[in-house]
Structure formats: structure tokens, C-alpha cells
Amino acid sequence: MFEYKNYDALGLAELVKNNEIKQEEVQEAAIQEIEQKNPKLNAVIYKIYKHQEEIEAFETGIFSGVPVLTKNISQESKGHLMSEGSKLLANFIANEDSEFVRQLKDTGVTILGQTNVPEFALMGTTEPKHDGPTRNPWNINYTPGGSSGGSAAAVASGMVPIAGANDGGGSIRIPAAYCGIFGLKPTRGRTPVGPKRGRSWQGASVDHILSRTVRDSAAMLDQYLYDRTNAFYARKYTESYLIASETPIRQPLKIAFTTLSPLGSTVDAACKEAVLKTVKLLETMGHIVEEKEAPIDGKRLANSYMMMYFAEVGSTFRAIESIIGRKVTYNDVEPATWILGLLGKAVSSEEFLTSLKFWDEVAIKMEYFHDEYDFYLTPTTAFPPSRLGELDQTKLEKMLIRIVGGLGLGGILKKSGFVDQVAHKSLMRTPFTQLANLTGQPAMSLPLHQTEDGLPCGVQVMARRGREDLLLQLAGELETSDYWINVQENPFY
């Protein structure tokens, strides 16, 4: 009997290719999983099911016949909804495929729908007011992370073997860590962003997938083609990422690690333990591991990241205003989104440019850092998943945001030191992932630990720009270890 959930994407494609199973049967199995599990998890907020007679038979493509879901932001499918988690865009229909989706389709996949995101993908938890919260398959009282939380929950629960995701500050790695799956953020310029965009979040954000296996992620990375609209270009890898993921590392590597938050804030004991036991494992594999922090001012990095955040939300508001033909108001968006947009209007061009220059300074420092260390190892997050609703604003905070917004006091807020407070509060739980976004480096989250309550904890590994191959080599080896979480053990699988 065909057991859909026992196969990763490459495994399903192999069955279809060998005529052991029909493509329609694979799609039907995926739809059954979605219909059974989604009412409780709320991972999929828009469905694109096709009748059997409408299904295209893909005879070529490495993922021919594989069902996937795409993320409800930046991954537009022509003729379908792209609401970005906001009621402001509840009726917005994309008029063309994004370049990522076009290239995804060229691999032979069947897109079955779109996954839930926080409003405009701004949060590390997926709890939009418009579409409702997505729940973690390991425990439905907890978040799957964000902003690719819907995709992570769908993959971890067995709905689909892979799902589209993007990462502007940890949005692939954070949900991968919280859901016990594999998540790789590629090098800036490695994956497509067009045709209407040349960059996303000034190059901080890149698209890829979330997967249960390392080889699926590697195989998909092999499929991306040059995107002429991309403002950035990563040097082409002339070999195969898939082969790299299946090739052991044959020489000892030098690895730096830390369990200290770059903000100087608390790191949960479980997240520290995840790193420390990984360090021991790496040492038994013959690698040289040293405790050392990256030479970066973590608090300035956080402020620089938030500066981009503010400006991007302000720019998003302006773009939406041209679509809806009026000003965006407080009642149109969630309170947190509103305050970010308000601060965006208060950011000067001088501040923004200075912030971008700092990204380059940090990237150069990390290049020199990787002259000595092949990898930089940290917790993926500083805390395990939060409970749903735990990070909501209080009634008082919402009232203050409304008052400040109504009076247009963004500039005063910024001068008061509020930016530092926002940066600290926003990133305290997830302070490790933004570094790779600002430098453009590849980074991955590995499912190597669980809390006493059974919730997954991820371990982040960063490498020099352009060295996804080295990351995938390491991930492929660690995937065979006893520490690697068996995602099939979660209650929804």
C-alpha cells in the first residue's frame, strides 16, 4: 500500500517517474492530509486544488508530481490570492507568477495552496488577526514560529514534503527550529526574486523551501536559475548541492560556537544544551571546536535590522495606498504593524543609508572571521516556541499605540529611545538569526534537540558567503546521527 508520508519529495518523484504510483494519487493523498489536519493547525489559508482531469502530467523535472504549498507573501501565483496575512489585501489577486514560483513549477511540482503568515511577514510567530493563528504540530498550544510558520507546520505535520518559505530575519530558520525540520537560508542573490522586484528587504530576504530532509533542500537549491531582475548575484555553484549533501566531510573543520545572546539577554537552558551537545558530537567527528563569539556589535546589529524593518513597513504602506486609493489607517492593520510603519516614516534617509553601510561593515568582518573558522554555531533561537498569544500586546500597549498613531508622534518615539526598546523586545527570543540576513551569508537550522516537554530546539550553523555546499555536507552527516529529531514522532504526523 502507498504510504504518502513515508516519502520525501525526491522519493515521491521517483515513484511517479517509475510509474509505481500515479501523480493524481500523490495529489489526492496530500489533499487528504491537508483536509484532515488543517482544521486544527490552520497552516493552509488558501487552497488551489485541481480536479484529476485538470492535473498536468509532468514527465520532466526533478520533483515531477510532488505536491507543494507556497508562502502567502512574495510567492505569487497568477490568478490567485496574495493577501500577505493582512485584511488590507484580502481581495488582492496576483496578475503573474513570481519568478520563484515560475522556477518552482519548472521542477514539476503541483502547487496545492498557500500557507499562513503573520501580517506582512513581520513577526517570528504566525498569529495574524486576519487568518488566525497557525499551531505547532508538536503541541497545538504553541507557535510554529514565523514568518514561514504555516509552511513549517504543513511540512512537519506531513501535509506536504516541502513548502515555499522566505527568510528576511530568520523566517526559514526560526520555524524550522520550532517544528523540528530542516531550514536553509541561502546566500544573498542565490535564489530568484523577480520579476517585479530586484531585491526584497534590501537583500536581507531570500526565498527557498522548508523540508523534512536535507537532500530535498539541496536538490531544490540545484534547480534555481539566473534571475536577471535580481539586484544581487551569487557566484554559481558549478557542482551539485544534492551530491554535496550526500558526501561526508573528509577533513577536520574549525568551528566557532557561542550560546551567548548578541543582545546580552537571556538564553534558555534548553537552547544552550542543544548547542553544547552538538559541539560534543562535532568533536567526536574529528572537528576542532572553540567557544568564540563573532566580532560583531550585537545591539547595533539589532538596531540596524530594525531600521530596515521600519523603513520597509513604511514603504509597504505607501505601495498599498497606491492599490487601495487611500491612506492606510490604524484600523486597517494590526497594532504592531502600525507602530512599525509610523516609525518608518520617522526614519531619515541619512539614518537609513548609515544603517545599510553598517551591513557591509559586518559582512566584511564575517569574511575575515571565516578565514579562521569554517562554521559559526549558535542556538537558532534563544527560547523554545512561545505559547500562542504570549507575545500579544497588552491592552495598555495597544491603547498607547492608538494614541501615538493618532497624534503622529513617530519622531518623538524614535528620539525617546523607543527604537532600542522595540529592537530588544522584538528580537530577545530570536537574536541569533538576523546576522546572516544582513551579511548575506548562508545559514541553516538543524533539528538536533527537544525540550523536556518535547518541543523542538534548533541549532544554527553559518558559513562564508557562497558555501551552502559545506553547510549541506555537514547537515547530511548530522542527519544520520541519533540527535536528529524524528519529525514523524509529532502527534499530527
TrEMBL record:
PROSITE patterns reported for this sequence: AMIDASES
Domain of life: Bacteria
Domain Amidase: 26-472
GO MF terms held by the record: catalytic activity
Family that this chain belongs to: Belongs to the amidase family.
One protein family per Pfam: Amidase
Naturally occurring in which organism (per UniProt): Ornithinibacillus bavariensis
InterPro entries registered for this protein in UniProt: Amidase (IPR000120), Amidase_CS (IPR020556), Amidase_dom (IPR023631), AS_sf (IPR036928)
Protein's name in the database: Amidase
